[in-house]
Design a protein that fits this description.
Elements: E1 11-15, H1 21-28, E2 32-36, E3 58-61, H2 73-83, E4 86-90, E5 98-99, E6 102-103, E7 110-114, E8 128-132, H3 135-145, H4 166-175, H5 179-197, E9 203-204, E10 212-213, E11 219-223, H6 226-235, H7 265-270, E12 274-277, H8 285-299
Parallel strand pairs: 1-2, 1-3, 3-4, 4-7
Antiparallel strand pairs: 5-6, 5-10, 7-8, 9-11, 11-12
Helix pairs in contact: 5-8
The protein binds pyridoxal-5'-phosphate.
Pyridoxal-5'-phosphate binds at residues 18-19, 21-22, 64, 90, 92-93, 114, 116, 126, 128.
């Protein structure tokens, strides 16, 4: 964002339910995050609500392909072109997710990927990358990540140290050939969950956006009695998690933005219903059978 010239006095739109990074990177440029509610069916930014959040100060939209589900990029790109805004895709949870046959991260001017160990393509420590087709922006980002100098001692700007650690790069290169297979395994897990959970009335299973390939970083269900279910599962050796228990506008860190909980009613309601079930390529059919039957026995 800094290398696109975004900073003080600007606004950047992102979604009310995400990891804090989607918003905190906006603030770090000096700009102001502006949240938009989530779509009740797909849990990512509700594209129908974006235009009313645009002001004369808006410079960019950051759609987040949350859980590995692609955002409606056709609508996002349409809105962005109409209002002359940059689109920066947050692909931290969506390695190799596809929208209309095209991988996410290739729609906007740039995209960010995380290689945090828990991500679909994870290093053994922290790492990440920026994707862009714009050579001018690529050059600027490289410069910024290397203290503003592409040649030693020629600091054209002030930057930061954000070099990809060599050891992490080696680990990522070794894992990369397996990622498509691992993604397919995640989809297999999701398919099986869908089959086994779809007829439990107390559970809403995740719906997949048409014409997309979901990469299932997370398999998120919605339930009413979340705490009861998660502690029941914990007693049976099944770990669950919540992504995320507090929508961004409800975080203490964003009190200064003066949002009210009901400004984003869907994100606000879902923060107490969403529950992430175990999902990773090595999860076996038997494991999933056990998890699903445990959930069923909780509700019976
Ligand atoms: C993990 C994550 C990030 C941040 O990635 P880091 O590697 O920790 O910087 C950003 N956005 C989303 C949606 C994430 O899940």
């Amino acid at each position: 964002m800094k290398m696109l010239g975004i900073g003080y006095g600007d606004e950047v739109i992102t979604v009310a339910n995400s990891w804090i990074s989607s918003a905190e990177t906006i603030t770090q440029t000096g700009a102001r995050p502006v949240f938009v509610d989530i779509d009740p069916e797909y849990y990512s930014i509700d594209e129908k609500l974006i235009e009313r959040a645009i002001t004369a100060k808006t410079k960019a939209i950051i759609p987040v392909h949350l859980h590995g589900q692609a955002v409606n990029m056709e609508q996002i790109m349409f809105i962005a072109e109409k209002h002359n805004l940059y689109v920066i895709e947050d692909c931290a949870q969506s390695h190799f997710t596809e929208y209309n046959g095209k991988r996410v991260g290739t729609f906007g001017i740039a995209a960010s990927f995380s290689f945090y160990p828990g991500k679909n393509l994870g290093a053994y420590g922290d790492a990440g990358c920026i994707l862009t087709n714009n050579s001018d922006l690529a050059e600027k980002c490289k410069m910024y990540a290397r203290h503003g100098a592409l040649k030693k001692h020629e600091h054209k700007i002030e930057g930061i140290n954000s070099r990809l650690d060599g050891l992490q790069a080696a680990i990522l290169s070794a894992k990369l050939p397996y990622i498509l297979k691992w993604t397919d395994e995640r989809v297999r897990c999701a398919d099986q969950y869908d089959t086994l959970l779809s007829n439990i009335p107390q559970i809403v299973i995740p719906r997949r956006r048409p014409n997309t390939k979901h990469s299932f970083h997370l398999y998120v269900i919605r339930v009413k009695d979340r705490e009861g279910l998660s502690s029941y599962l914990k007693d049976r050796g099944i770990e669950t998690a919540i992504h995320y228990p507090t929508a961004l506008h409800n975080l203490k860190a964003y009190e200064y933005l003066n949002y009210k909980p009901d400004d984003f009613p869907v994100a606000n309601a879902y923060q107490s219903q969403i529950l992430s079930l175990p999902i990773y390529p090595e999860l076996t059919d038997d494991n999933i059978e056990y998890i699903a039957s445990s959930i069923r026995s909780y509700y019976i």
